[in-house]
Amino acid sequence: MRKSLILTFVLSLVIIIFAINNNAVVTIDLIFSQIEISQAIVIFFSVLLGAAIASIVSWIREMKLKKNIKQLNLKIEELNKTIFNLEETIKEKEEQIRLLYLKDEN
Asked: How much is the pTM?
């Protein structure tokens, strides 16, 4: 967590320095109009949009992984119940075999 925070801080500083060094006015051609805006603002908005998209994709992936973990935990629980039932069956069969041996000895 701490390493990612430091990395984020360093990358933010690099982006800020880059944007400040590129502060010329540029014309952006939108579909229905054109606007003139500082290149630094364009860089900041681009970075923010990229971060938002990355966050959304990461969040969706995390939700899928959590769902998968939940399903796997349910499967583990089901398999543990099956193991318990099989162990009980083995104990019963062993007892039946033991009783049969005792019966044969008599």
From this structure: 0.63
